[in-house]
């Protein structure tokens, strides 16, 4: 049956209205209810339970939902429905806004109008004017077919059309996502895919609201540049044509810290100076071990910094992610360790020497992945910005652990 036929049946069979209406899907209920006369609508509202009315209102845009609520004469019942509806909407929006810790409920915009695809240009103009008069905001004009959102119409596309013409030919596709998707999915669409707006749907495909890319970007707009500059230990306000003095003042503190950590790593080599004298060939492999560890650590650090920025991860729930990162590093370390050891043997070293340098590379890659994951999470858990010194701390740990690993293995096995 079509929506019109359902509406006619309900209008003619008063005794069966409530049961028949409840047997329709959520989308059908919305479309059929809107087809009914005001008298039938009021009668239906008296036959439906609170939960049924909440589900019906949830299908409509906020403006229409308010008008439907006003048709419920019992003030106490109307208040109970309003509270439950607001509670459900808030719970769903709370799921959406997890993509960023500073996102508020307002991130899911409620200024939208939902019109049927049978509407005319005049209907769009009337709905737009009504919403603007009530709220002072221009709404997004969404279009539904039999209760399910199929796209949007933009007022600019209709200005040259006759008021009586249908909007069907002017419906544009719009990106839609259910609120149960992973929180970072919305941020990814807005920040990386250059999507201007995302219509957020409930699990029954009713519209929950609209997220605009400008609002998402407002939460992230300082993060990419800050992360880039701070990761390189350069102040955000430094530019290519700054004076020598300004460049010096912007960088010397972080470079002094880096120098101190370099001495710390170098002291490990000093401790094993005698071992290095006996096996001078080890000196050739120290930069390899340190370099491989540094690169692997930066990869892990970048991944976890991004996840922290998007609100995907915290230290409290990091174990699965960190454990997978470490297991991946075991595989990567095994491959690179075998290659390094094989090259050492090909270059004339003993098989045991190949084992030492190979294990050294493997151990350092595992250490690098572990610290690359945990350092930014720990710094963020302490309430600090992980972008500032994560790189320096990571480099120090990987260098120290890599040098210790290769020297201790050399003492034990060679």
Automatic annotation (TrEMBL):
InterPro entries tied to this protein: CBS_dom_sf, SLC41_membr_dom, SLC41_membr_dom_sf
Tell me where it resides.
Answer: Membrane
Coarsely, its chief localization is: membrane
Q: Where is the SLC41A/MgtE integral membrane domain?
A: 286-408
| Topology of this chain in the membrane | Multi-pass membrane protein
Q: Which domain of life is it from?
A: Bacteria
Q: Name one GO cellular component term.
A: membrane
| The entry's keywords | Magnesium, Membrane, Transmembrane, Transmembrane helix, Transport
Which Gene3D superfamilies does the protein's record reference? CBS-domain, SLC41 divalent cation transporters, integral membrane domain
What the record says about family reads: Belongs to the SLC41A transporter family.
PANTHER family (UniProt xref): MAGNESIUM TRANSPORTER MGTE (PTHR41394), SLC41A_MGTE INTEGRAL MEMBRANE DOMAIN-CONTAINING PROTEIN (PTHR41394:SF5)
Which protein is depicted?
Answer: SLC41A/MgtE integral membrane domain-containing protein
Whose protein is this, by species? Candidatus Kaiserbacteria bacterium RIFCSPHIGHO2_02_FULL_49_34
